[in-house]
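The data are quoted verbatim for reference:
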Amino acid sequence: MILTDLLERNAERYGDDTALIELNPIHDDAKNLSWQEYELVETGHASHYRRELTWWAFDERANRFARLLADKGVRPGDKVAVWLMNCIDWLPIYFGILKSGAVAVPLNFRYTSEELAYCLDLSDAATLVFGSEFLERVGSVKQELTGIGTYIFVGMDVPDYADSFEGLIGGYAPTRPDVRISEEDDAAIYFSSGTTGFPKAILHTQASLMSAAVTEQTHHGQTKDDVFLLIPPLYHTGAKMHWFGSLMSGGKAIILKGTSPKWVLEAASSEKATIVWLLVPWAQDILDAIDDGDVNLDALDLSRWRLMHIGAQPVPPSLIKRWKQQFPHHAYDTNYGLSESIGPGSVHLGVENILKVGAIGKAGHRWQTKIVDEDGRETPWGEVGELIVKGPGVMKEYYKDPEATATALKDGWLYTGDMAREDEEGFIYLVDRKKDVIISGGENIYPVQIEDFMRKNETIKDIAVIGVADRRLGEIAAAIIELKEGVRATEEDMEAFAQGLPRYKRPRRIIFDKVPRNPTGKIEKPKLRRQYNAEAIVAKETEIGEGDA
């Protein structure tokens, strides 16, 4: 069985039942809404645009898009890139690509034009499906996108070089195209990055995608009655693979186009959500909003909400303790995974292990884990080593990068690059990362990219970017800057220079200091992390002490 079989099964069994709901807060820019009619809903607490899709309409729309792609010359194995913000058409488009036998290539909505061009070239994409939010970025590099033969635009005001998704899709038959697809066929390319800069292309098969659906439903027990509130971006394996539990069960999902505490809680209330997956900063914001009186829980109906789970970054135990005080009836869970392991689930805490908060858990359903030393030998429990995983969702390869593939995959085991330890009960705790990736609010930030950009500033002699602990985002990027002899510069000067970076990559903290290097010339980042994270802890404790006084 493959993933598209599940969609067709749901259309047959639950055709008239709602599959997807899109909620668009009323303050969103109305020009970004598609021409299709939205229902304006007044909940008593707020207003929003609401749009539904049944399982039958979902499947039909995917079939139509698969036929549209075939008519545009897309053949099995071809690469089709998707650059869209979360919307109700995201998943039908994704499944249409899979039904056509092509390989789906989701793109991060934060990519710059340069990153877009790089990823399209690396993945061999020949078709780009994109929305109005990306018109300027696509247009600025269109002359360089020589591999893209077809542009399909989702939204109004279609550019003259693109075909209209809405204008064309209705002209194709709603039945499944006659394309043979096997579990071994390539299905999707997701992007990840190391500390060296631009992303790697991670290739997964149909069997890998299907394994994610099985793992997710096994871990969280989704049923037809569950309602999943989907907030994170669908380009990422995390959000989509958690939604696969709804696909397995035929349950309803709400795509919320907004992350404010007010909108999350009101959506959960109005749509009777039972499962909500959050990132650490969103959970932090919700609790802060409740404490500050910005939301009134007594006016909301959250009685059906049964599970809150968090992924994408380490979870502070203090946050979960605080959450359980506010929502004692919620089960809590966390998952660990990588895009290389088809997202969350290779390690799983389990709702029954609430006392182990702080651990990422044990091997997930149908997964194996080991913690090994530099020679690949298992370490005794309690000792730190590299976490490696093995299971049905391990990537096929880094596309067009055999050297990186050979480094990451050994005898079927995926070497994660994360340092971890295992306690006497077999629970795994992350300790550090071999790579210098900073995870801030669930987004990966790569220090080398920031360092390379900031070095263009002629006042900078040396720079090191590290992650510093942050209560809300988990980590923030801090830039330790060593100025040239006799040069003066301020934090404001550096912040102004950093405006040339995408917002999420800009250093949140500027520190003027010497950048230590070892005898071989390498920056001693572990030393910097110890120093500045210790200072952050002391500063926080001082702040708390003064507040208590």
